[in-house]
Amino acid sequence: MSLTPLDFAVLAAYLVLALGAGIWASRRAGGSGEQYFLAGRSLPGWLVGISIVATTFAADTPLAISGMVASKGIAANWFWWASGIAHVGVFLFWSRLWRRAEVVTDAEFVELRYGPGPGAQLRTAKAVFFAVLYNGIVLGWVLRAMQKIAQPFVHWEDWLPAGLWSAWESVAPVTSLGGAGDLLTVVSLVALAAAYSTLGGLRGVVMTDLLQFTLAIVGSFALAFYALAHVGGLAGLPSRLAVELGPERAAEVLTLVPTGGLTWMPISAFGVYLLVRWWAHPLGDGGGYIAQRLSAARDPAAARQAAGVFVVLHYVVRPWPWILVGLAGLLAFPPGDETRVFAEGAIVATDREAAYPLLAGLLLPPGVLGLLLASLAAAFMSTVDTHLNWGVSYLAHDIWRGRIRPACGPREEVLVARVGSVLFALLAVLAATRIDSVEAAWKFVAAMGSGLGLPVLLRWVWWRVNAQAEIAGALASLSVATALAFWAPPDMPWEWGLGLAVAAGAVAALSAIFLFDPPKPEVLDRFYARVRPPGFWGPVAERAGSGEGAAVAQFAGAWALGALALMAAILAPGWLLLGSPFKGAFAVLVSAGAALACRVVVKRIDEVS
Length: 609
Description:
By secondary structure, this protein is mainly alpha-helical. The protein has two domains: 5-448, Sodium/glucose cotransporter, CATH 1.20.1730; 550-609. It is built from 29 helices and no strands. Helix 3 (45-56) runs antiparallel to helix 15 (289-295). The relative contact order is 0.16. The mean pLDDT is 83.
């Protein structure tokens, strides 16, 4: 598959604009760490929300989701749809609290919440964990996915002078990323993303995210349109799948809510997703790069608006083009028949994630193909630039300024961040060589940090939670996840492993809460006065002269209503698109009603907080 001059022109235009945004933002980014990492806390909510969505749309995302749909079924998306329950909480409550905290990183937040001593130690540990281990794995799988996308289209051996190509080929190592050409593609794109994110800081990243998200959405819907047209259109898609796959297999693929259980997902596994997965996450309160973005909003109201834009676009709008491409891929590359339609079916037979870029190359006309590849490059770079900026914020703000050189000036902090961006880019390339499956990497990271989920949520609503609870929960789940990665039986469901990691983390965290003292009163008083959190703050609220627990029941009710509204909104497009109009209409009504009721309750909560 070859690119035309028009495709190259579209790609080149995007790359020039991305680098130009970094250069434009560079003058303001170098003034201080707050300018570099948070754009001076001046961004409008809608732009922050789109930036978060652009970051979560990485190059790996459409491949992984379309691949899961083809190999398992639509219901496989509950692996991440369930996280929407947590993000409803971020939208309704945590977004405003993150902005009120006025921290640069979520690692800095733990020292504000727990104070010096254990809090400072946890701040350093979290900075290292997220900056190196967590960030390295995430960037690694993103790079791995980009290699799969670029492989059918990028042919450096034909584009570069023979001597230059031979020189590169002789020194380039052979890794799981592929040959010398694959490695050069990934390194080139990472270098460009590192260049503009290093120059412009968060402001440059956010401005490019707006362009990247626009391209990504247009490219996703364009491929879905052409893929569906190739296999006969959307009308009658379920019946054609039944003929191709057999009625039972087609029914499994098209199931949205596995209430009766599936051969690959027993009802107990679905229960883990719906009841455990959403809160058993180290960033379940919107920490990490989401907290960084929310902290960059101009005020708490803008932070909530940002979280709302993110939730709707991320869960309701964006996944359905990818799901439809995954379904179309089952007809374009039928399982068990590697020779029908396209010879490339032989590749898809062993790697269903490869169907996404192959369908693009085989079906899209010139210009449109360039647009899609530009959108995937944009998605890739929007994730790389965010993780570079987020990762070095831990290095520069929490480790260098927080521990090594507390007296360093703002320009020195920015210099450390810029040097750190280059180091993190190299780490990402190294991590990518160790990852074979995007879905497997997703699941290992999810289990690894699951023990942080409970204490991370409890710290907002219960004064008794201490730093030791987070440390104990993290160590317990990391130990269990690592042990299972090496010694678990091959046929052991991943959901069981997650349950073991969550249970170990929860027991360790709750034990630490009662075995160790709570933070000092002056630390809790300072945190409560600044953040004004809901929940059980007993003596802290009493010292502050405010009532405690008045909004707790409303808080839980609003969250439940918001979660119901989101889950119904996620399912409605699927039922409407795939031939269940009555179910789809009912889901729309449920979503609208729950959203209106949630809004009423949240207004009452806001009046007292």
